[in-house]
Design goal:
Layout lengths: L1 E8 L10 H15 L1 H9 L7 E2 L3 E2 L13 E7 L3 H13 L2 E4 L5 E11 L7 E6 L6 E6 L2 E6 L5 H19 L8 E16 L2 E14 L1 H10 L12 E3 L2
Antiparallel strand pairs: 1-4, 1-6, 2-4, 3-4, 5-6, 7-11, 7-12, 8-9, 10-11
Helix pairs in contact: 1-2, 1-3
């Protein structure tokens, strides 16, 4: 299930380009306002978190050399759990004003929250990333294993996407996917990104892809996000065409 959140900026201060972590924190606190039990479960849960959100889609860019400036924008929150989306929406509307940015914070207000119709998925779909796609692996660095962020030029990127998606599906539904096939047929318009999350940088990618997979996996990727760190605003997908 997916919800479109429309926001309006009520101050002249621009938003810092690295707003993703601030937006993630705001969303968690709004969830706690509406459903503290669900928020506590999410906070204490050591496994995967089954939601994602998109970057801001800015509707009226205002030039500013210090950051992102606009009057109106929207973003999407997505999850396979309808109760989660309902609680999120209630929390946002209960306390619609929030702040984003570093230093001089920008004041924003949530104007509306709209539940979107669910797309119909076949075994072949075209997606675009609405937030950066993040994938990592462990590799030897000297005598120790260290985390390495992956880009689409690395074959391990696709293997780990598949493994991560199936693992999250199994944890959410409590059983393995019935038809486990997954293949990215084409990747286009790749743009490397570096995103600051809680004082560390994640190397990730914005891209378009043609994906062939079982419809249940495709739907889960759309609802829960693709790749890792989805609750931090990575891997939100939009349908193309």
């Amino acid at each position: 299930m997916r919800c479109k959140i429309t926001i309006r900026k009520t101050s002249s201060n621009p938003i810092h380009y690295d707003y993703q972590y601030g937006l993630a924190s705001m969303l968690y606190h709004r969830l706690a306002n509406a459903n503290i039990t669900l928020a506590n479960e999410l906070h204490s849960h050591q496994g995967f978190k089954f939601y994602t959100f998109s970057n801001l889609v800015i509707e009226d860019w205002i030039p500013n050399k210090y950051g992102l400036n606009f009057t109106k924008a929207h973003f999407f929150i997505s999850s396979p759990d309808p109760e989660f989306i309902r609680s999120f929406t209630e929390g946002l509307l209960m306390e619609p004003e929030f702040f984003l940015g570093k230093g001089q914070k920008a004041n924003l207000i949530i104007e509306s929250a709209e539940i979107l119709p669910q797309p119909e998925f076949s075994d072949t779909c075209k997606f675009t990333t609405l937030s950066p796609l993040y994938v990592k692996t462990m590799r030897k660095k000297g005598e120790k294993l260290a985390e390495f962020d992956l880009y689409p030029k690395d074959a391990k990127f696709y293997e780990n996407l598949h493994t991560n998606l199936c693992s999250r599906y199994e944890e959410y539904y409590g059983h393995k996917v019935e038809q486990d096939f997954f293949d990215i047929l084409d990747v286009m318009d790749v743009k490397a990104k570096r995103v600051s999350i809680d004082n560390s940088f994640r190397r990730c990618s914005m891209l378009k892809m043609k994906l062939e997979a079982s419809p249940e996996l495709v739907k889960f990727a759309y609802d829960a996000g693709l790749g890792e760190k989805n609750a931090m605003g990575f891997g939100c997908l939009g349908v193309v065409g």
